[in-house]
Design a protein that fits this description.
single chain; Rossmann fold; 7 helices; 13% strand; SDR_fam; Sc_DH/Rdtase_CS; NAD(P)-bd_dom_sf
Length: 265
Amino acid sequence: MRLTGKVIIVTGSTTGIGKAIAKKVVSEGAKVIIHGLEEDLGQQVVSELGADNAKLHIEDISNEGAAQRLVDIAVKTWGKLDSIVNNAAIVAASTLFDTDKAFLNRILEVNTISPFLLTQAAISQLIQNKGAVLNIGSINAYSGEHNLLAYSISKGALMTMTRNLGDSLFRENGVRVNQINPGWVLTENEIARKKEHGLSDTWYENLPKNYAPAGRIILPEEIAAATIYWLADESGPISGQVVDLEQFPMIGRNIPKDENSVPLK
């Protein structure tokens, strides 16, 4: 197993991509702190993984002191902390015309500032254990959909932070910082969002190849599988990297000539 003996915090891991990552790291031998807002869902994840492998902490990641509490729980429970996965995020629609200061601040607090604060709180443990930070971004970091302005800003800032810390922390302290940018992923929340937008209960079963060349979108488990390399020692000295996980390139994509329908994303 590739993560045997490691202790990892995965924020936003009661649902979706975070839950899939938590389950995957445990399958690779790690212990994990499950974090999120949904007590019942978190308890289900811990039950699946076993109390010896997982510890639950329910709290808004942007609360004052939340980052330090997560680190303290990991160290108190298993004696150390090897890695953090900054996955918790708010995905909310907004444009220039309906984004006020309070909304923008809220998105930045959760999606960008909280990953910074958790990295800061964990740094002594990460230095001691030559650990790793993995940030979960989004392909929206490059410009974003027209109605995901605040979210896109937050993920663009996260990507810059990854590259900055990936250089400075590794150069000075041996702590690797990398990021993956998932594309369109079939999470529980994504299914619900599209239904709220008026799509059918089975909207994801017959997708145009313009938006999903494989005929389907990416599964959380497929994103989770890609995280193990970055958390394991096998990634060696690689740091400051951002990897896109989507079905088509963000730069240089050959858009089909018949792509004239309204995007589902």
